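Hi R.,

Here's the chain you asked about this morning:
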Amino acid sequence: MKLETADNRPLLSAVRLMRPDFLPVVYLSACINVLMLVPSVYVLQLFDRVMVSGNLMTLLAVTLITLFLLLLMGVADWLRTRQLVRISQRFEEMLGSRIFDSAMKARLVAGARCAESALSDLDEFRQFLSGNGIFTVCDLPWFPLYVLVMFLIHPAFGALAIAGASILILLAYNHHLRSGEGIAKAQESFRQEQEFLHGKMKNEDLIEVLGMHESLRDRWLQRHRNHREWSMKLQRMANQSGAVTKFFRYSFQSLSLGLGALLVIHDQLSVGSMIVGNMLIVRTLQPIETFVGSWRSFLSARACFERLERLLADFSDSTVSVKRIDHIGTLTLTNVAAWTPGRRHRILAPLSLRFESGQVTVIVGPSGSGKSTLARIIANVWPEIDGDVHVDGSMRADFDPHFLGRRLGYVPQDVELFDGSIAANIARFGEVQAAEVIRAARAAHLHEIILRLPDGYDTKIGNAGSRLSGGLRQRIALARALYGDPDLIVLDEPNSNLDDAGNKALAMALRHLKAAGKCVVVVSHRSDLLALADRILLVQAGALAFSGAPEALLAARQGRQTRIPDETAECC
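And the predicted structure, written out as tokens:
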């Protein structure tokens, strides 16, 4: 279902679309709260009619009617719960995919663990929609009904109910003012603690080998103490507020009995009405007390909603690219410059390059010069850029990223595999087509190695490929990049963990790709791949220092030229 986001509030738009789903909740809440008066009416009938007349048939009739109405109330409550669960599930179905896509885009831009936190926010808000907090929100608007009934019993009871409710509301507001900042601080400290723990647990072997255990433990304890202090502070405030609220609720409950006794003594009220007034004041003040008790969960759900709203507003494309692509012939960068996330510092100065089919380009340069950034721009995984990127004459942003990704192969500098089988990783966790998986493995000269493993292509690699050697992970990543016969292949340091046999396999794979007319871009520190290159790009200090044939670069380095040719303007 398409959400109208003209107001740039996609979550709010989703809630508006779900108004028909909330209507049954409103009707059922009305039914439940009206039927909540049944026990009070039953008590009133017992004291003022049955006990006066002594008629057992009246007692039986009133009791059966009361049980039937209470059964209706239970059914209505059950139906309301089911409807709220359906609403929460539909909310997740409508926005889950968009939130995941936006979170991954935010992670790409900001580098934060947005996917995990955003999905946690979605899950927390979904639980709020089907939890006790939303029941309080549904029942709280019916507070005036009970006050009205108490006024009908006697105006003094109504005044007492208003006084009690006013005090509880003031206490709730005071609790909100005191705990609002603390809740935000506690949530932020918890996120920092979890992010720190998650990042370090991925490298537990390195931590143990290098003796980093104690220092990292101390750093975690510092974050944990910070979170604990804020949590304990919030808990103390909640306990204080709960104790004060409970004191006033019990006080007004007792005062209602005293007031009722006074009215009975002066013949202004019956004994049954006195007991009913006591029951109603309890029912009147209970939703407010419950609301105060669930205030933290309410604020937390609101914070989750606002974070998700900002995420979708900042990282969700207003227009969805639907243009498909079946082949990448040329990729052109025009005055493209790269920036760090947040656009604080420029990493690459503006450059213009053209990459064509059948061409192998090797990017060289010292560490930190911007080689990997240029590779990521070509692979469409570096969003903070200026300038234009065209694919076959059309803007790359106009193409559907899903179809664009099918025509592209990429091996990052830090190889990341995922928990699953080798076949699933090579197939990019799509539908595993055995013939295509084997073809990609053969292209990476990996097929025989996989067959020697205990379970072959079904071998489980563990989390992030932890059960495999660095060289084998790199070669599986190469096979994954070649899966689907892509047209543009970007390899960032593909031989950093390879042995001699792996280097030979990589060289043969590059020759095969060149012969097949593929556009190949390789970042490398090693000179053995220069012989395969049609063009060398030398990146120094964030600028393109040279673009040309390998012979020209070698000649310049050997002093056979007075300067390095500047082919930046025309580097096709």
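The chain has two domains: 10-315, 330-557.

Let me know if you need anything else.
M.
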